[in-house]
Specification:
The protein is of the alpha/beta class. It has a single domain, classed as 3-Layer(aba) Sandwich (Rossmann fold), CATH 3.40.50. 51% of the residues lie in helices and 13% in strands. It has a 7-stranded parallel β-sheet, with helices on both faces. α2 crosses α9, α4 runs parallel beside α5 and α5 runs parallel beside α6.
């Protein structure tokens, strides 16, 4: 008898939790609409899965939708959005608004990393880095805001990085785009709060995705004099090792861990302005704050086994 009572209580608790979870995802019995950019893989894919599993009407978008069948099977609505093509962004947002009445939560996740030393990095590559990581994000936000303002509610969740607080040699373009995102997010937050729209910045440390492999594949071919060849080789080797899932590096996260925090930020009545995720996101800025600029330079170069001695070869095993 006692066991039956305990079992009944557990069942009731589970039902209560499910009902509470469902209530958070709905307003006036209408599921909230979430739009996730860059959802074909990594953090975006995990976020789309997390939202749709909690009852949200979830639009999973990417410039290449050919590998998104799993999300579709889970119930996500798949849309093709390339955040560098304005006409495509406009048409798809209008279509989503016609189908649902408007986007309640925008997760600006689309982005990539462009590695390479500044001297050898083509300016066209730097422009593309900002087109995707910054300008595409701003344009998507502009497109969903009018409907949010009319409803006097909405949430913009920008996927930033702890890399928006320091810069790694060999990855300046990527870091600069994340520094820019920090500033734009702060500006949005101040401008939109009066309309009931919350703006949140998600700041993970390293994440086990294809991000670093892609960033290193885009590393420019060295110039003919080859002065950066050894730096390039060591940078790629060391960064790939850090983000190798088999090695389980300190502080590196799974996409699912980040997705859980994104959902938390979406559901919170009063969300934090920033969510730092993982040890790297919490410790690295503190180390930076405690050190001089030159001291932090040395610290970062040592992570890639590069000597910091002036007047000597900068490469050191």
């Amino acid at each position: 008898m006692q066991k039956s009572i305990i079992h009944l209580r557990v069942v009731r608790l589970m039902i209560s939790l499910l009902l509470a979870q469902s209530a958070l995802a709905q307003t006036d019995s209408k599921p909230k609409t979430v739009l996730v950019t860059g959802a074909a893989s990594g953090i975006g894919q995990a976020a789309a899965m997390a939202f749709v599993s909690r009852g949200y009407t979830t639009y999973a978008t990417d410039k290449d939708t050919t590998q998104m069948q799993a999300l579709q099977r889970l119930g996500c609505r798949i849309r093709c959005i390339d955040v560098t093509i304005d006409s495509l962004m406009v048409s798809q947002v209008r279509r989503i608004e016609a189908e649902t009445g408007g986007v309640d939560i925008l997760v600006n996740n689309a982005g990539f990393g462009q590695n390479g030393v500044i001297e050898e990095l083509p300016i066209a590559r730097v422009r593309q880095q900002f087109e995707v990581n910054v300008f595409g994000l701003l344009r998507m936000t502009q497109l969903v805001l009018p409907a949010m303002r009319q409803r006097k509610s909405g949430r913009i969740i920008n996927i930033g990085s702890v890399g928006g607080e320091f810069t790694t040699p060999g990855a300046s373009a990527y870091h600069a785009s994340k520094w820019a995102l920090e500033s734009f997010t702060d500006g949005m937050r101040g401008e939109l709060r009066q309309f009931g729209i919350e703006v949140v910045l998600i700041k993970p440390g390293g994440v086990y995705t294809n991000f670093m492999n892609t960033a290193n594949a885009l590393y420019p071919t060295p110039l003919s004099d080859g002065v950066y060849n050894e730096f390039r080789e060591k940078f790629i080797r060391q960064s790939n090792a850090i983000f190798d899932p088999k090695k389980r590096s300190f502080g590196v996260l799974t996409p699912e861990r980040v997705a859980d925090v994104i959902v938390k930020a979406a559901q919170a009545r009063k969300p934090k302005t920033r969510y730092r995720i993982g040890a790297l996101a919490k410790l690295t800025p503190r180390i930076h704050a405690l050190m001089s600029n030159r001291g932090f330079d040395k610290f970062m170069l040592r992570q890639f086994k590069v000597s910091t001695q002036k007047g000597q070869s900068v490469y050191n095993d």
